[in-house]
Amino acid sequence: MSQLSNFGMYKEFMIKAWKFRQEIRQHQEWMEKYAAKRGYTLNPHKMYRTNLIIWLEENKRLYHRQVCPCFEASGEAELDKQLVCPCTFCETDVETKGSCHCGLFGRAEYTEEDFRDAEAKVMKSYRIPLKWQGDLLDTTGQPKDALRGLPVPDAMHQFKQARNQRAALDFEILCEEEQSAQNIKAYVLQEGIRADIRKLAEGWLLRLNPEGER
Fold this sequence. Notes:
It is a single chain. By secondary structure, this protein is of the alpha+beta class. The chain has two domains: 3-126, Ferredoxin thioredoxin reductase catalytic beta subunit (Ferredoxin Thioredoxin Reductase), CATH 3.90.460; 131-209, Translation Initiation Factor IF3 (2-Layer Sandwich), CATH 3.30.110. Helices cover 49% and strands 12% of the residues. It has eight helices and seven strands. The strands form two sheets. The chain has a five-stranded mixed β-sheet, with helices on one face. A two-stranded antiparallel ribbon has the order 1-2. β6 and β7 form a beta hairpin. α2 crosses α3 (46-63). It starts with a helix and ends in a 5-residue tail after the last strand. The relative contact order is 0.11.
C-alpha cells in the first residue's frame, strides 16, 4: 500500500472519528456491557476499535440498522437481521476461532497479543490487491464467509479501499450482486454523488458521476 493511500486512510479516520465522537462513546458503552454480560474481552486497541465503530455507525445510517462493520447489507431480510451487531454469529465465531469475525470481541482469556493476531487476519482478508481493469474496479469473485455466505471483502469495503487510491472517483465498479451496487449508490448519494446502475453479463455495473447533483 502506497504512502499516499496510508495518508488518505489516516486522514479519513481522523475526520470521521471527530464527526462520530458522540456515537463512538455510545457504542463503547454498550460494547463494554455486552462483553461483560457474555464473559468476553473487548478489543483493547482504541484505534482499531474506533475504526470498527465508525463503520458500524455508517452502516446504521445507511441501512437503518447497525449491520456488522465487516459486512454490507445483503438485501435478505432474515440474514440482515442476523447481521445486526452484536450479530447472531458472534458466539459461534468466538467459540471456534477465539474472537468474533471483526476481532471486536474475544474469549475471556484473550490477551492483547491474541487481539493483534485477530486484527492481522482481518486486515489480510480485507486489504487485498484490488482488481483494476483500467478505470474499472472488479469486486466480483471474492471468497465467502462460511457462516454468513457473504463475500470477504464485499463490494462496499473494496470501494472504500479504492477511494483512498482514487479520490476523484473517476472509475466504475463491477458488482456481483445488484444489492451491492445499490448499497454503494446509496452510500455516495449521502455525499451528493449520483450513480447509475446497469446489468451486464458479468454482474452489475455502477457508474459514478462525481459532478452530478442530487
